[in-house]
Specification:
By secondary structure, the chain is mainly α. It is built from 8 helices and no strands.
């Protein structure tokens, strides 16, 4: 999407941006590695590291989607996704203050952008959590989302550094993709998730037997 809108300068087959970035500080035989091989290594690492990233992602998902989204369901699913997403975005404050994620924009703008991103991604992760009745799908998606953060660099063009404010899921162009995914779920009737109605009261869960 960033490429189509002119915010991403791509080199789809030459991988010149990746070669440019990998060429700094590379010594020995690694200097002779072709850009195509570097790209394959990076993509393979994304697939491998993604499973390792599931472990720390599970720690987050147990809290955000596993507990908080469930606890906020009395607000309705839109309210639960919005509230948990805003809190999740603000929770990244230390990272943003240190200059990560959005280093090219003012700190206030980075906060706003992170909140927008977290609301959109949090809605999709929340949908995974509720529709599967398990926190694991959300944790796996979160882990691979983290591992794929540098994917835009693989296909970038030399001389055009990747800016998270305009390229990738963190950016406003990525929000278009996330928003379309949410829209598709709405149109297919997958959102809001149809949850089973739990009976409340003293006899909840009691099996009733009748002679009639």
């Amino acid at each position: 999407v960033g490429y189509l809108l002119g915010t991403y300068h791509a080199d789809w087959t030459g991988f010149s941006g990746l070669a440019e970035q990998s060429g700094t500080g590379v010594i020995g035989a690694e200097q002779q590695t072709s850009p195509g091989t570097l790209a394959l290594i990076q993509i393979a690492q994304i697939l491998g590291v993604g499973w390792l990233q599931v472990i720390p992602a599970l720690g987050e998902e147990l809290g955000w989607r596993g507990y908080l989204v469930q606890a906020l369901l009395p607000l309705g699913q839109p309210g639960a996704f919005l509230t948990s997403g805003v809190l999740w975005g603000l929770w990244h404050a230390p990272v943003l203050i240190l200059g990560f994620n959005y280093p090219t924009v003012p700190i206030v703008v980075s906060f706003i952008m992170m909140v927008c991103f977290c609301v959109l991604v949090g809605t999709l992760l929340g949908w995974l959590r509720l529709t599967t009745r398990s926190v694991w799908p959300a944790a796996i998606a979160h882990g691979f989302l983290n591992s794929a953060a540098g994917l835009a660099v693989v296909f970038s063009q030399a001389g055009h550094p990747v800016d998270n404010a305009s390229v990738g899921l963190l950016s406003w162009t990525g929000w278009i993709v996330l928003g379309l995914l949410i829209l598709v779920l709405l149109m297919l009737g997958k959102l809001p998730v149809h949850l089973p109605v739990e009976k409340t009261g003293i006899s909840r869960g009691v099996r009733r037997l009748s002679r009639r």
